Amino acid sequence: xxxxGTGWLPAxxxxxxxxxxxFERDGNYRFDLSLDVTGSPDPAMDELVSPEEAALAYLRDxxxxxxxxxxxxxxxxxxxxVPREDPLEPGQEMMRLETSASGRIPSGARxxxxxxxxxxxxxLVMMVSKDGIAQRRAxxxxxxxxxxxxxxxxxxxxxxxxxxxxKEAEAAKPVPTVRDGVRxxxxxxxATGGRSALLLVLIFLGGRSWLHSGAQLWWFCSGSLAGxxxxxxxGWALPPWAPETLSLVAILGMALDNILRLGTxxxxxxxxxxxGGLLGLGSRNPELDSTWPGLLSYHAGVLGVGxxxxxxxxxxxxxxxxxxxxxxxxxxxxxxxxxxMVLWWGLVRVVLGV
Length: 354
Known about the structure:
Blueprint: E1 2-5, E2 10-23, E3 28-38, H1 43-48, H2 51-62, E4 63-67, E5 70-72, E6 80-85, E7 93-104, E8 111-116, E9 124-130, E10 133-134, E11 139-141, E12 150-151, H3 157-161, H4 164-172, H5 178-190, H6 195-205, H7 210-234, H8 242-260, H9 266-281, H10 286-289, H11 292-317, H12 326-352
Parallel strand pairs: 2-9
Antiparallel strand pairs: 1-2, 2-3, 3-7, 4-5, 4-8, 6-7, 8-12, 9-10, 9-11
């Protein structure tokens, strides 16, 4: 039994939350939600905080949507009230509140998940349908849990299969601009839960000068572009878990390179290019990949964020690079810390399923 309120005034109880997430091949999604709410025994409470207001507070605080690795708070529409009698307590009035959130699936998104706040006290039962076909098993989420990834790689497949309706929907989509590509490339590094940022810090820890750091950035972006082109040429659709796994492998490789000095001189540039290539393999974006301006502008966004990290690391760490203790006290400990974070992320994903 969960309590609904404004954070300081518990006024209503929610006994059940059910959801239906529907995803279409034309790129639209809809998330329908119903909440069974029992009013407060004290009528004065209902005057201060209505069940509808409390339910909206719950929706605002308890639910987060995730497309790939980007979390955001959904925007639900108006609540529809359906009065009904509590089946467990005859004579006790309760309400069923229904609402929905809808929108476009982000370009290139491979997976969708729902996250419940750790403070939520009632489970969420979610059914999923894709292109009108319901999945046979429901997902049940408890406080602090994240749903299993829902594969979205089927989106847009109808266009290639010759579906006239999907072709019409595809034709109505706006053509991605260079600005869209730059934004998508920047978001690829900034919206990945800190993994790409950690990878770039590991790379530029070894920058001996502005010129050396700039050369590493060039090799990183070249490797990322090469990996992206390889994926595009093969026409592959990686599973939803692949981009995150590839970024973790790249972090692990750069951390070991820093500790063991596996790459020195030109070998270092090769290591950086391989790390960028692994990141690029997880960058498949069908809409941007269809044109060279879209593809190149995407990597211009990657380059811009990478340059920001060059400036940051050189300004913060540059004064210490010439010190004899720089490697032993900064590079090696930070690299070991990165390995620990990779192992922790892997443990959380594999064991806890978060």
